[in-house]
Sequence to fold (331 residues):
Amino acid sequence: MFENSLMSRPDTFYNIIAVSEKTSQYYLLKSGKKVGLDSVYVFDWYYDCEQEGKIRFQDHKINRVGFMDKNGIPIIPAIYNYAYPFRNGLTIVCSGASLKCMDEREDGDTTNCEVYGWVGGIEQIINEKNEILIDSFDQGYRNLNWYSLRMNMPNPDTSLYYTVTGRQGIAYSFVDYNKEFTQWFYSTFIPSLSEAGNVRDQLFEKVRTHMKGEGWVSHDRDAFLDQFPAALTSQRFQTNQLKKISMGQTYFFQFSCDKSIFKKFNNVCGYQRDRFPAYSVSVKYNKLSWPPPTKDNKASLEPRIVFDYREDFEFLRTESGYRLISASFRN
Fold:
């Protein structure tokens, strides 16, 4: 008997899966064959899982990472400091990084270090043949739609696409999720809030709402609109001196939702954030506050802007576009 332990995420066995026994770790094939003995790759206390017919393995003697195919055959040698899973036939790998203690104390003592991380190095993009396509990739870019790849796209729209030039002068263009969401929010969602719009089409089939005394409650989108007719108005998202809007990608905690509805957003590794990112829009309300007068400055008191409360709206990217999936607001 083997156990797939608390460090493993897959709940489905495609072709190859990481396994832990009391005395060893290995990869198990559907045929029952064991491969990659003691070369199981672990990151953030999780075993890797199969994506696009590939899974990462690690040479623990030299602390380098490579890839096996679904049959357990190494197809990319363990030569990289770290590597991301394959997405649309591409992955980001890093070479030349240094291992550093991430919980280093002020006195520099790393004797009892618990968390190490790679620092520096050069990130590159390779394909399934281990061919380098892009020599240097911006380490700050983690919000790209890898499945939207266009090569040598004529005049890519910079308000939507991120473009990087690789080897042989080939330009690789990807939809930037941040730009895509911002564009959708202001060009589609906000107009749908008017009387002439149809906000129902911008709602997910279930909308979670935080209700006083009940916590998070799920409603069908029609029930949500009937119960909270004033929740989604253009006025709610208009800014002024005391009202600001911020937005950004967030992690969608679907474990608190109906699993059957969200199954389509999962693969063997769980929630596919790289395909279906979630965004949060926060409306921050401030107010003016006057400090109490004192004997020394009775005439010079100026009001201060202080935080009052916040409303949050979460949107999930679906195959049909972004949809409102949760809302926390003052009714």
The longest strand covers residues 304-318. Residues 177-192 form the longest helix (16 residues). The chain has two domains: 16-140, 179-328. The chain is about 10% helix and 45% strand.
